[in-house]
Design goal:
2 domains, EmrB-like, disordered N terminus, mainly alpha, disordered C terminus, Growth Hormone, Chain: A, single chain, cell membrane, transmembrane helix
Length: 496
């Protein structure tokens, strides 16, 4: 570590001193935090609006998940390429490009006249986010040196990720019941364009030293395999698992994944250099993140439907029901940021994932005729605290031992894990839950009481999927993350 790095290592992230790039680190963190917040806000802001979108565009129920997964899958599939593009062509340039694409496709989504137009706009919107997220996170890791300063900055970053997911459902409810669901997209337009315009005054251009080519073919193969898998999971419920169509699609997924591996093995500059996985903390954190975000996005997707379609909440009431959860997410994030530095990552993560699993278990037990104060609020408080602690700890762990030249790749990798996990989690949970909807409606014969009980049972199955993801992440952390001695700092933990 150089002398300048040592100086940075001792500085708090919101220090008023300037970074070597000539900008105050607190201002840089605030600016890129807005960009990060917007990206993850759009993952969840749609959830509360889904019933209104379905009614407005006359969408079949099975297509609702594609509004979420089209965005998340494209975002996840191209994040790694976005990280490499940021290192090659400049982090600020990619950040600005992504903000413009994101803003314009938000306008198209808000103007959508049918489900195909909306889902298509969401997919391209995900491409814009795939440029924003890794560029912003790479700017952060190059602004703050590894150690306490970066840990605190990543703590704020992780808190923003968690808070954006919760703020999305709150804002989504207010906008949907207020000016209408189209405004959940229109609101992004001025924010994105203004942020792109002022970026040069806040962030100086920076890039890695490498000028290698980038692996577009690998990104396309990976994204195509994820999209085909999610589409197949949704369609198999209706056409059958043993049909030629389903089996053929699954074979196509395998072929695309094999093609991706072949491309990576032969590419001069692969999308995912296998050498990055020499870092045990990084590879464990990424797999755990896939599982955690499978839990998180499934929670918000189905809790919103549960409150509106079982408890009869309005969009605004459903959104406001998440306010306590948002508060405890920020509390958990701040608590974890301090504890990781003083104790270690593993025990903090284990507590966070345990709380998340317990909170989801309480939601799984919520009755069809329950109350918010007794049946939902305790679950939201526990799961929110757990998610806040887990978000931050995994963000910090994923960057242990990562050098500046690999920061863009590591940023893309952790964001890919978040989005791929969220998309796959919703796809799996929706496949299980929505397969029961048609038989349920037929058996209820229009009886609202039977329909209410039936929907509650369907959504309970989705929450059970979320529990499985969360417990899986917990077991993974127990088995693979090292226990650190109390005297060890997170930046000295073993990584291989």
């Amino acid at each position: 570590m150089s002398a300048s790095d040592s100086t940075l290592d001792q500085r708090a992230p919101l220090d008023t001193k300037q970074t070597p790039e000539g900008r105050k680190p607190g201002i840089i963190l605030a600016f890129i935090g807005v960009a990060q917040f917007m990206v993850f806000l759009d993952v969840s802001i749609v959830n509360v609006a889904l019933p209104s979108i379905q009614d407005s565009l006359k969408m079949p129920e099975v297509n609702l998940e594609y509004i979420i997964t089209a965005y998340g899958t494209v975002l996840g599939g191209f994040l790694l390429l976005g990280g490499r593009l940021a290192d090659r062509f400049g982090r600020r340039r990619m950040l600005q490009s992504g903000l413009v694409v994101f803003a314009l496709t938000s306008l198209v989504a808000g103007l959508a006249q049918n489900d195909a137009m909306l889902i298509g706009a969401r997919a391209v919107q995900g491409l814009g986010s795939a440029l924003i997220a890794p560029a912003a996170l790479s700017i952060l890791t190059n602004t703050f040196a590894e150690g306490p300063a970066r840990n605190k900055a990543l703590g704020i970053w992780g808190a923003l990720t968690g808070m954006a997911s919760v703020a999305g459902v709150i804002l989504g409810g207010l906008l949907t019941q207020g000016p209408g669901w189209r405004w959940i997209f229109f609101i992004n337009v001025p924010i994105g364009l203004v942020a792109a315009a002022i970026a040069p005054t806040i962030v100086r251009e920076g890039r890695g030293k490498s000028r290698e080519t980038f692996d577009t073919a690998g990104a396309v193969a990976l994204t195509a395999s994820l999209l085909l898998l999610i589409f197949t999971l949704g369609e198999a419920v209706y056409v059958g698992w043993t049909t030629f169509r389903t089996i053929g699609s699954l074979v196509g997924v395998v072929v695309l994944l094999v093609a991706f591996l072949v491309i990576e093995s032969r590419a001069a500059s692969p999308l995912i250099p296998l050498s990055i996985f020499r870092l045990r903390a990084l590879r464990t954190a990424n797999v755990a993140t896939v599982l955690l975000f499978g839990t998180t996005v499934t929670l918000f997707f189905f809790a919103s439907l549960f409150m509106q379609q079982v408890y009869g909440y309005s969009p605004t009431r459903a959104g406001l029901a998440y306010v306590p959860l948002a508060i405890v997410v920020s509390v958990g994030a701040g608590l974890a940021s301090n504890l990781v530095t003083k104790v270690a990552a593993k025990p903090v993560l284990l507590v966070g994932l345990t709380l998340t699993s317990v909170g989801l278990f309480l939601l799984w037990r919520a009755p069809a005729y329950g109350s918010y104060a007794v049946d939902l609020l305790p679950a939201f408080l526990i799961v929110g605290l757990g998610l806040g602690m887990s978000f931050v700890t995994l963000q910090i762990t994923a960057f242990v031992g990562v050098g500046k030249e690999e920061s863009g790749l590591a940023a893309g990798l952790i964001n890919t894990s978040q989005e791929a996990g969220g998309a796959l989690g919703v796809a799996i949970a929706a496949t299980i839950a929505f397969s029961k909807i048609a038989p349920l409606k037929a058996a209820a014969h229009g009886d609202p009481v039977l329909l209410r009980y039936g929907r509650a049972e369907v959504f309970h199955q989705a929450f059970l999927v979320g529990i499985c993801f969360s417990v899986g992440a917990l077991l993974l952390a127990v088995a693979l993350l090292p226990w650190a001695r109390p005297s060890e700092r997170p930046d000295t933990l073993p990584v291989a």
